[in-house]
Design goal:
Length: 367
Amino acid sequence: MVRASVDNAPPAPGDASECYICRGLFGEVGKFATLAEKASKEYEFSTFLVGTKVDPETVEREESFWTEVGAKETESIKAELNREIGKNLEKRLGRTVDFASPEMVFLVDTMFDRVILDVAPLFVYGRYRKYSRELPQTRWPCRECRGKGCPHCNGKGRMYDSSVQDLTGPIIMARARGEDDFFHGMGREDIDARMLGNGRPFVVEVRRPRVRTLDLRAMEQDINLKAGGVVDVTGLRASTRAEMRAIKESTHSKTYRVRVRFQGDFDHGKLNEVVTSLAGKHISQQTPNRVAHRRADLERIRTVRSIVLEEASGPEAVFVIEADSGTYIKELMHGDEGRTQPSAAGIVGVPCEVLELDVIAIGDKGE
């Protein structure tokens, strides 16, 4: 919260100071504009909006007056103040008012001569590839202590030392001189799964940025250099809240490469049966045992859009699978004690374990 104040000054002479309703409030428009200008001097923004808070006595006098004269279509003092302060600021700052999505909102408290800044977040879009099987997408607070630090997490407050978010968000936040960063991905891969191919779309949200004009190409290079080959990002560009929401709500298909090992003797001809039995078919997946502690126990119907047997050697096989968003691929392979039907293990007739899982394509158009 940012505030600025100046000493009270007598209202400017003229009709405004003699008004029964506002009691000279409009004579202070210049003062309020000065407060706003000072409060925002450290922030870069191109559009703004003004809101005001007027003391209840003034509002009561205004409402009583309109009732007394029988006026039905009126404009409030607050609306007129907003407009007049906004016009004054447009001249001072050389920036324009935006009623739809301003980068800065000035909340002027006329009772206490202060201005509170509501700074719009900064959004940066990109795509990431992750080459580690020990790295989560976002920060993972310890479930035992909720980030405070305990023996379970060795006092760190988190389950993993780093994440894709840690390797991207803080760099963007530092360049924008913001106060916090949030990572929004188009879904997420398991910690032990790599994200390859065209990369996964994401948006980093920076709260209360002071800088909005960023050298995104240089920042992309900086992120990739500091990530040391564990993660790389491409296509950084300015984004919006609407795009961030669209990414989070996306239902694009995903393509995976999965290596499994069957645990027992089996007819290798059954591997082809896995392909014919699953390709283009609906599957039923109950919430997997491994995530049941944090997700509702629901049945989900998903479609395996395509499946190809890419390699088979001894007890191991590699499948390439395109499936609906939200499909649990590991469970599609091993069946999860019957919670996924049908499954590769069920079709082959012996249990299997997933050795490696990679996401190799996201089904959006890409960039």
